[in-house]
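Form 7-S
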Amino acid sequence: MIDIETLGHLRGSRVPIVPEIGVVFFRRDPNDTEMMTAKLILSVDKSCEAGLDIDDDTVSWWAGQSADRLQDMLNRPGLSPANALNILSKAFAAYAERKVNVWAKSPSFDCAILGAIASKVGVTVPWKFFQERDVRTAIELGGIVDKNFPGSDFYGVKALQAPEGVAHDAL
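Output:
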């Protein structure tokens, strides 16, 4: 699973700075609890040097969340985008013997941004498009209650149920 924090959104040719990349490698087998986690910290200065952008609206949003958190992201030392993606590639290579899919919430955001950064800095992401999986889809299809919306099945909408005795229904 990949989760990123950004200082912007993809807009035309503008590629946002990603100050953090969180990664968890896991197996879906409940008998195999081996997991590897990593948090890659990227330098905002090195990201700017690589031609990545900061979006003022996103920075304002972060300031409203926590001014301290924003200052930490803006000022801490970290990796260049190319180095961070190379480390991510090495981590994927370590799991190459397994079927590795990339789960994100949502791949059209996280994976797309990482792919755009990779293109910008001349490296490749260590996965193919067909390995991308959307956590939101799994949540919805699995009928999992989203912790952000207690008391509901999914984003405030009660899950639709097939009629009793019917295994599948197009509703």
